[in-house]
Design brief:
- The chain is mainly alpha-helical.
- The chain contains 4 helices and 4 strands, in the order βαααββαβ.
- The strands form 2 sheets. The chain has a two-stranded antiparallel ribbon. A two-stranded antiparallel ribbon has the order 2-3.
- Strand 2 and strand 3 form a beta hairpin.
- Helix 3 runs antiparallel to helix 4.
- The radius of gyration is 20 Å and the shape is elongated.
- It starts with a strand and ends with a strand.
Length: about 200
């Protein structure tokens, strides 16, 4: 495959990207599996609190990733990238971050408008700071589910865009975020092809 060698994301950005991607995938599957556990059973409370606890930690990682992104400029897209693709990439990244932030935040808020609160990893009980209010709980819980669906849709679009760059454009753009193997290649102008 012939690909252009582009400047890469920082190592911290790459590690956080793949770590958060794997954790979110696992958390999404975990959330779906919770639907099979009957409500009102001890097992459900145990696993729901694990889901809440891991969601809080993932949320902190997402904040770290966002902070890194805001303070470390990502590598530029190739000059040959059409304007509409640049705009689409910018908008999709903003929406991805918005959904990733909305997911843990809405889950945390929903937990604080129920009588259960959060039992962090089933060890430390964080009492809810809000009232046991079914309306507010439903709003935040509904937002949590909507954010999960939107994130799944956006991730699908993101993966399809990556597939286009890999299989159709063959421009090596994925290598900017791919973990390095061996000695990193030197920076090569976007118009100069290199053999992979």
């Amino acid at each position: 495959m012939v690909a252009a060698a582009y400047p890469r994301y920082t190592t911290v950005a790459i590690v956080l990207h793949w770590l958060i991607a794997l954790l979110l995938l696992g958390q999404f599957a975990f959330g779906l599996a919770l639907e099979d556990i009957p409500r009102g059973t001890p097992a459900r409370g145990y696993y729901v609190n694990l889901h809440k606890s891991s969601g809080i930690l993932i949320g902190l990682l997402i904040l770290l990733r966002l902070g890194w992104r805001l303070t470390h400029r990502p590598p530029p897209l190739p000059e040959t990238t059409p304007g509409w693709q640049r705009t689409a990439a910018r908008i999709s990244h903003i929406l991805l971050y918005a959904c990733m932030l909305a997911l843990p935040l809405s889950g945390y808020l929903a937990s604080n408008f129920s009588r259960h609160g959060i039992k962090f990893f089933n060890v430390v009980h964080w009492m809810p700071w809000g009232p046991d209010d079914k309306t507010w709980y439903a709003i935040f819980n509904g937002t949590h589910h909507l954010a999960a669906l939107l994130l799944a849709l956006l991730v699908t679009v993101h993966v399809l865009a990556v597939a286009k760059h890999m299989l159709i454009d063959r421009d090596g753009l994925l290598l900017r975020m791919w973990p390095c193997r061996g000695k990193p290649a030197g920076q090569v102008p976007a118009h100069q092809p290199v053999e992979n």
